Amino acid sequence: MLRIAVPNKGSLSGPAADMLHEAGYQQRRESKELRIVDPVNEVEFFYLRPRDIAIYVASGQLDIGITGRDLLIDSGADAEEILPLGFARSTFRFATKPGTVGGDLADLKGKTIATSYEGIVAKYLADHGIDASVVHLDGAVETAIQLGVAQVIADVVETGTSLRNAGLEVVGEPIMKSEAAVIRRTGAEPDDPKVQQFLRRLQGVLVARTYVMMDYDCRVEQLEKAVALTPGLESPTVSPLHNEGWVAVRAMVPAREAQRIMDDLYDIGARAILTTAIHACRL
Ligand SMILES: Nc1ncnc2c1ncn2[C@@H]1O[C@H](COP(=O)(O)OP(=O)(O)OP(=O)(O)O)[C@@H](O)[C@H]1O
Ligand SMILES: O=P(O)(O)OC[C@H]1O[C@H](OP(=O)(O)OP(=O)(O)O)[C@H](O)[C@@H]1O
Ligand SMILES: [Mg+2]
């Protein structure tokens, strides 16, 4: 049975459970459940604190886990990312009150930096030869500056609303970009068929979320131009129509570009252009 760590709380837990559900896995019915077994798919899910997941996976007791890239790196655990999942996207940045430091990261020298991600910050400072002190706080670190606990913070930034509300501005370039990812122990058996099947299912969800199926009819003379607009993942399916001189074309296209592609196809004479959602797939 495959043993998988899933976030039990916070920004990662809802989207992770949704993705697993879409991939056909049973998920817990109520938030107090810490472990469930999905007997049909032969998977055991452990609902753990996102911050602890890399540590469990690195210990070898659990085969894989879903956590944030920033949490994985912060933990320093012996685990590696094997599939980025596209949700909980954020950047990790330094921020402070305007005027506290110049735009240069060297100005952090001698400052006190509050963060919940001590591992990332300490490594960054060491790598850049900056001598500063780090104060660990559990969360809501934006307030640390107002209350005088630190002059600088290092925290997760998504929309920037929390920083703006606290009257803070970012300093320097992002320390890192993060998103949710599947992780496994460094050096774990790379071809474990159960893990490979799990990854294929999640990849199927990612593709179903980002692509749509497009169908249209066009004249044979327009086919080459039309196919250039809809190359598909490998090659589009082209079928003859009963009316001579016309063909039907079917190809996957990126959902974000679907409307533009439909306009372009129409302009070159394609008609009966339809898009339909993909519910699941294996590529
Ligand atoms: N506002 C946000 N937007 C996108 N990702 C976020 C946001 N806040 C946290 N994350 C991501 O969520 C993960 C942290 O999850 P964690 O559950 O520890 O904290 P949280 O989501 O802030 O929840 P809480 O602080 O309520 O416990 C990290 O990977 C982080 O990058
Ligand atoms: O840029 P934004 O869109 O505002 O998002 C970033 C904020 O979201 C998270 O906070 P959360 O609400 O999880 O509280 P926390 O600080 O206690 O973790 C994170 O720690 C930032 O504070
Ligand atoms: Mg938080």
UniProtKB/TrEMBL annotation:
Pathway: Amino-acid biosynthesis; L-histidine biosynthesis; L-histidine from 5-phospho-alpha-D-ribose 1-diphosphate: step 1/9. PANTHER family: ATP PHOSPHORIBOSYLTRANSFERASE, ATP PHOSPHORIBOSYLTRANSFERASE ATP-PRTASE. GO terms for molecular function: ATP phosphoribosyltransferase activity. Keywords: Amino-acid biosynthesis, ATP-binding, Cytoplasm, Glycosyltransferase, Histidine biosynthesis, Magnesium, Metal-binding, Nucleotide-binding, Transferase. Belongs to the ATP phosphoribosyltransferase family. Long subfamily. Signal peptide: none annotated. The gene is hisG. Residues 49-204 form the ATP phosphoribosyltransferase catalytic domain. It is an enzyme of class 2 (transferase). Catalyzes the condensation of ATP and 5-phosphoribose 1-diphosphate to form N'-(5'-phosphoribosyl)-ATP (PR-ATP). Has a crucial role in the pathway because the rate of histidine biosynthesis seems to be controlled primarily by regulation of HisG enzymatic activity. Its EC number is 2.4.2.17. Residues 208-279 form the Histidine biosynthesis HisG C-terminal domain. NCBIfam families: hisG, HisG_C-term. The keyword DNA repair does not apply. This is ATP phosphoribosyltransferase. It is found in: Cytoplasm. Its cofactor is Mg(2+). Feedback inhibited by histidine. HAMAP family: HisG_Long.
